[in-house]
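User: Now give one protein:

AI:
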Amino acid sequence: MTTDNREAFLNGIAEKLGRERRRTGVKQPERVHTIANETLVGKTQDELLAIAKDACTRIHTDVVETPVAELAKHIEKIATNYGNESVLIADDQRFAEYGLQNLADNAWDKCAVSVWKEGRENRVANIATAADANIAIAFADFLLAESGSVVVESSPKQGRTLHFLPVHYIAIIPKSKIVPRSTQAADYYDARIASGQEIGSSINFISGPSNSGDIEMQLVVGVHGPISVTYIVVIDK
């Protein structure tokens, strides 16, 4: 919503309420219930990982644990299972930090690797690359233990289509980034906004491969997005 549209919208509501708009002294109300902050709080990272694994069995998602030294080996194995071919990765410095510079340099013998290109002028080309890619690989900000969802922030270095258009999707998550539920992820982004930081155009919660159920409640997996998803949890970084 643009600023002009927002002002018109809020002014319209105030008019219907028969009062002037309150522009100062407005505070966020206290929550009546605190279950959102209490669910799974106090669990260790090992316990949260176990809960996440159980949740992932229900959303048709594989979970692999690995030390950082073996991360590249596991990615290569998973990519081979997915048929290799073309790979699209985010423009993310963590690929180098986690020993995956060969991906960023397109030095992977079995796959042709493309890197998301920053800039509005590359939008059409990025979407086409994502649509043609067999595999996407990206780092997630969080893994939510309760639902088995990963959280990724869209940015100029990784647009939303990177996560949804390729046939297969691999998300890399440091073990320290496993949190109880969406509450903690939302608090993180809220704190960034409160401190004046800019965040991406969208925060995406990805719960395994795409799926859809028709009126007969027959689950169909891989209808409008990745048909298979693997989370790689890096346990020592």
